[in-house]
Amino acid sequence: MTLSALLLAAAVTLTPVEAARADALSDSLRCVVCQNQSIADSDAALADDMRELVRQRVAAGDSDEEVRAYIVQRYGEYVLLRPRANARNLPLWAGPGLALLIGAIVMYLFARKAKDVPFEDEEDA
Question: Are residues 73 and 26 in the same domain?
Answer without folding.
Answer: yes
